[in-house]
Amino acid sequence: MKIPRALHALPALLLLATACSKKEQLVIYATGRGQGRLWAREDSTLKGARAGGYAVFKKLYDAERAPKLALDTGNWFSATPEGWLTRGRSTLDCLGAVPYGAAAAGMEDLALTPQELQKLADASKVPLLASNLYLKNNKKPAFMRSTALLQAGRRKVGVFSAIIAAPARPNKAKHLQNYKLEKESYETEKAVKALKDAGADVIVMLLGINPKEKAGPEFYRDFLAKAPRIDLIITDEPTMKKPAKIGRTWIAPAGLEMLYAGRFELELEPATGKVKDLDWERLPLLQEKYGQDQAVLKVIAGYRKLSSSHFARRIGSLAAPLPLADKDESPVADFAADCMQRWARTNAAVIGRRETAAGFSSGTVTVGNLYSVFPLDSNVVFVKIRGEDLERALGAIPFGEISVAGLKLNFKDGAFEKVETTRGPLVPGHVYHLAVPDSFVGGRDNPILSSAMEFANSRRYLREIMGWCFSRERSYGRPEGGRITRN
After folding, report:
1. pLDDT digit string (tens) for 315-367?
2. Is-cis flag, bond preceding 243, omega within 30?
3. Looking at residue 377, what is its pLDDT?
4. How many Cβ atoms are within 10 Å of 291's Cβ, its own excluded?
5. What is the DSSP string of 385-421?
6. CA-based nearest residue to 470, from 374, 379, 336, 376
7. Which helix (H) or strand (E) holds 486?
8. Which residue of 138, 156, 161, 368 is most buried, as measured by CB atoms within 10 A?
9. What is the C-alpha to C-alpha distance for residues 404 and 427, in angstroms, rounded to an integer?
10. How far is 180 from 140, CA to CA, in rounded Å?
11. Is 190 helix (H, G, I), strand (E, B) or coil?
């Protein structure tokens, strides 16, 4: 009996129909702004439960049965002494131990010099992305990648990144100390085309927003109005609490500070691989629920031992405590101002009191104490300014926001009255040399910055300068107060 030709194709058609009727899933886990937080810790937002860290995340990730990837949006070292000590290497070793599919450099990671960033990239097991990052010579850093093509199940996932320095002023090139950030729309077009040409089924963008800025909904709408199709944008913007869909693009937040992980479940069309729907949840990394991976704990233990030894190192001594605040004064900020003036050999020094996060106790001072008291990554800047401009600039700063050395400021009835040097009144036409942290000089609408004749960054961390001061004398007492007074 002869079987009709159409029936020969029936099994294949049935298989195709069965495949088309099934849902195809792809799961992406995303973290960001870990900033050196390697291990689990007790957290008040989670009712004191121990949570976070890469060993917990590894257990969660390994339990996932669907095709999966792990991605990180960057900012690897700025919040912990361990992160600063290794300049991000500890975080990237943890990412490699999971392993993550790719990680994007964040805005804070650009505090690293190109040499430091290259050393980090060369040692990383995880591809490091910085799609819109250029060197000062307008060349892309060869040690960073613009795109990554990753395999998840039977699908190819194309990943690229962008760092946005100023979302309020989008799509403009931004010049930094060591780098240039190119326009995000220009680099997005290049990256998406390259990934599609390479056969990517799904396009994912890791979008890093400057932690000092915020990106509202209008930023994403304007960006996507000019961008080619992107299936999923993962952002580290903390004000975005849940996913949104603009046109054909999903935008959703990563889990931040290694307390949470963002889980993105993408439903794909089996025939084409296009994204049909997205389910998102923010998962607390609860140690009690997931446990901890022993291999990752071993990596972390090595860095804990290294950091414990380093930060316990003695650098000096204090004969009296230096509290963060004492009535209208900040003895610890006064001490820092004295130290800057002494090191820089300037006429005066000015420091914003937000620079200090804590005070010093009396007795031994360790490296760890320096990081606790001065958590910001501030450099000392040399400033030249005329006497009349200095007086005008200091008069524009509200009472209680700064500490000074080599100067005396007086406020009367809440208003600025006068400023003098330790030798007498300011001379209007005289050029004074100041030392200030760059976190203070670089503030928006900063009166000292706008009034200065010139300024130059010393490229030396304020923390280093404090260590230098402690090494100069056997013990320090409380600095002389009465520098800023009000009647």
Report:
1. 999 999 999 999 889 999 999 999 999 999 999 999 999 999 999 999 999 99
2. no
3. 80
4. 14
5. EEHHHHHHHHHTSPTTSEEEESEEEEEETTEEEEEEE
6. 336
7. strand 484-486
8. 161
9. 18
10. 9
11. helix
Measured between alpha carbons, how far is 99 from 62 in angstroms, rounded to an integer? Answer: 10
Q: Which of 255, 297, 303 is nearest to 97 (CA)?
A: 297
Rounded Cα–Cα distance for residues 362 and 327 (Å): 19
Which residues fall within 8 angstroms of residue 151, CB to CB, at 6 or more apart?
157
The two structure tokens encoding residue 210 = 């400057």
Extract the tokens encoding 396: 């524009």
Distance from the Cα of residue 182 to its chain's centroid: 19
Q: How far apart are CA 266 and CA 261, in angstroms?
A: 16
Write out pLDDT tens, residues 254-294.
999 999 999 999 999 998 888 999 999 999 999 999 999 99
The number of residues making up the chain comes to: 487
pLDDT at 22: 67
Can you say how many angstroms the Cα of residue 377 is from the centroid of all Cα atoms in its chain?
Answer: 11
**E strand residue ranges, 269-321:** 275-284, 314-318
Contacts (Cβ under 8 Å, ≥6 apart) of 270:
19, 20, 22, 23, 24
Domains of the chain: 22-307 (3.60.21.10), 314-486 (3.90.780.10)
Q: How far apart are CA 334 and CA 278, in angstroms?
A: 54
Max CA pair span of the chain: 117
**Residues in the chain with pLDDT values less than 70:** 1-22, 441-447, 449-450
Q: What is the pTM of this model?
A: 0.81
Strand partners, 461: 379
Place of tokens 């599919």: 101
DSSP string, 98-149: TT-SEEE--GGGGGS-HHHHHHHHHH-SS-EE-TTEEETTS---TTSBSEEE
Element (H, E) at 61: helix 54-63
CB-based contacts of 275, cutoff 8 Å, min separation 6:
202, 231, 232, 250, 266, 267, 268
Q: At what angle do helices 462-472 and 331-344 cross, to 10 degrees?
A: 90
Q: Report the C-alpha gap between 294 and 332 in whole angstroms.
A: 42
DSSP 8-state secondary structure symbol assigned to residue 43: -
How far is residue 112's CA from residue 243's CA, in Å, rounded to a whole number?
A: 32
Spell out a b/e string for 329-339, using b for 16 or more CB atoms within 10 Å of the CB, else e. Answer: bbbbbbbbbbb
